[in-house]
Amino acid sequence: MNKKLKYAAAAIAVLGAAIYLNNTNHLAAHQEGKPVLLAHRGIAQRFDERELKNDTCTAARMLPSSHHYLENTIESMRASLAAGADVVELDVHPTTDGEFAVFHDWTLDCRTDGRGVTREHSMAYLKKLDIGHGYTADGGKTFPFRGKGIGLMPTLTEVLATFPRQRLLINVKGRDPSEGEKLAAVLDKLPAERRAQIMVYGGDEPVEIVRQRLPDVRTISRATIKSCLLGYIGYGWSGVVPKACHNAMVMLPINVAPWMWGWPHRFLNRMKAANSEVFVLGPYRGGEFSSGIDTPEQFARLPANYSGGIWTNEIEAIAPLVGK
């Protein structure tokens, strides 16, 4: 072997050793504490998730119910916190009378006795609807929640007033920048210490507005999470954290996590240093992120002594596994 090849081999060996030492967990501090649990939509009625499309009416595919809670309601949020959730996720739509309605669907037809696009109505109208109207687990033979959800659609203002100290994740359902302006105006009225307990995610345009207006609020959108994760896979070995990963809520599918340099402890430490918080989801299967870590089998895929965040639809099942 000539000298040039020897030098090249030595340089490669040194670089490899440096990358290893910079990313090995043997030299990384472990963040103590139990995982942070995020309850997606509070405690909700589950549904058959096979072959879902954007316009699938999930209320019509409800699985046999084990509880009486309806998603995105004050009661379901309160129950999820009591069950061990540290953070509650909720969905919001602007209304024609200046409020934000807490409701998941783009339209009212599936889940309620109303009709039309959610944001094209006033909150006064939405308050009159039965949000349990469309739930059925037997193809429409019975509707166990019909008549029980009248007036249960809350406003964002009501949620903030009911849970003044609890951590919240707000999902902006649309992509209109004006939604970001309106939401930023609402959050800007809160004390700085309260805003520090709130995260925002959703459409690229409104989330970017919130990110610009309120730099103390952690945010993430489809574009920024892709930029964050792909950037980190590309050059995170160096210890450099992509800009998109700063001051963010980092949503990380469990099957993508092993690709993160320094996973888990060094990765979590780097995100913490960037003022970001990591939440692991279920497996990414292309096109869409999975909804959550919802079974003991999925939970078992997390590293031992994992202390980051966990996104779940089954807070009642997952909380006992972490001792909450």
TrEMBL record:
InterPro entries: GP_PDE_dom, PLC-like_Pdiesterase_TIM-brl. Pfam families: GDPD. Gene3D superfamilies: Phosphatidylinositol (PI) phosphodiesterase. Residues 51-322 form the GP-PDE domain. SUPFAM superfamilies: PLC-like phosphodiesterases. Residues 1-28 form the signal peptide. It comes from the Bacteria. Keywords: Signal. One of its GO terms (molecular function) is phosphoric diester hydrolase activity. One of its GO terms (biological process) is lipid metabolic process. PANTHER family: GLYCEROPHOSPHORYL DIESTER PHOSPHODIESTERASE, GP-PDE DOMAIN-CONTAINING PROTEIN. This is Glycerophosphodiester phosphodiesterase.
